[in-house]
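Hi C.,

You asked whether I'd gotten around to modeling the 387-residue construct. I have! Everything is below, sequence then structure, no commentary in between.
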Amino acid sequence: MSPTLLHRKLSTSAISDIYTKVMEGKRLSFDDGVRLWKHPSLTDVGALANLVRETKNGNDTFYVRNQHINYSNICNKGCKFCSFYAQKGGPDPYRMTMDDVRAKLERTKHLPVTEIHMVAGIDKKLPYQYYLDLLDTVHAIRPDAHIKAFTMVELIHIQSIAGKPMTEMLLELKAHGLASLPGGGAEILTDRVHDLLFQRKETAAEWLETAKTAHRAGLPTNATMLYGHIETVEERTIHLMKLREAQDETGGFFTFIPLAFSSPGTQLEHIPPTTGELDLRVIAVSRLMLDNFPHIKAFWMMCTPPVAQSAQWYGADDIDGTIVTYTITHEIDKDSDSQNLSQQKLVEMILEAGRDPVERDAHYNRIVRDDSSTLVAKKQLPLPMAH
């Protein structure tokens, strides 16, 4: 459809007033958000989101060469939606030693990884020094890699064992190599869902305050939303608006990452998987509501590579990265290499989707290499940073 016909279609659709707001740069309201969830035409919502996406990021789709390390699956939170933590009838418990971490990093040292992503369960037997040693170990083996580690839930726990004010602890973690936070654990930022599904975990207010404290300490973060379980469209909208308000205050969020709920192995196995329609709508509505977020990610591991490709036309401008190993939610196929994608495959996926692949670092600086592994330059991109 030509740009002229697209604008004419949107300006005469049932969401024409929302289209007008978006074109005029006006912020969408709670009622607007709910209407976008319920609007029967996903195509209309996606087309509008794509206009915003292209205004912010043009035809670029970002990817990163990253490696995930989940250092322990022992957790005391008992979240009903989780299949990762060690439990009877579920995964066997493990806790990585520093030798384990070194070995994991050494096995991929031949790869040009620019970001190490680390999250885990809340393991009460790990002392504060463990977390400092973990950062030191990663930094020693990958001195040039950006370390993105610890959800807000982990930070709250780490503070409790460190016995220090949050900001003081964050600055100490920074001194040992921590550079940003991944943004997991937000789930749905409402008290109803919290009380029903993850009562032992931090509240919405605690998650948001921890994120803002991290931003003020110079640690940018991502933000997530777990969708497709018991949440309502109203609760999804509340979640997005709370994140938007926090971003207004600190400017410290890089990227919003919707996470599709996967029920196998959880206490909610009766809930069917998310549909492609929902996955794309979440991306689109998020792009429209989160007007102050620079980037929206379609996390291919969670929504599948084909949906992540399509999402690049529904508001997403990031497809994540090579990953190597991911165990937090599920394994797409235990008998294949589908838990990692080569840089070449990511580029092919993006090109096939009709977008321009751009390798990035954790700060969305463009990375230029003279071949598949040699870094030659970084091009700085303007981004709102934490203050």
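If it helps when you're writing up: Residues 325-339, 380-387 have pLDDT under 50 and may be disordered.

Thanks,
B.
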